[in-house]
Amino acid sequence: MAQVYRGGQPYPTGHPGRLTPLEVRTRAFAACRSGVDPDEVREFQARVADDLAMLNETVRLLSQENDRIKRALRDWQTMHARECSSAQEQSRNSGHW
Question: Please, which contacts does 11-14 make with residues 24 or more away whose CB atoms are closer than 8 Å?
Answer without folding.
Answer: none
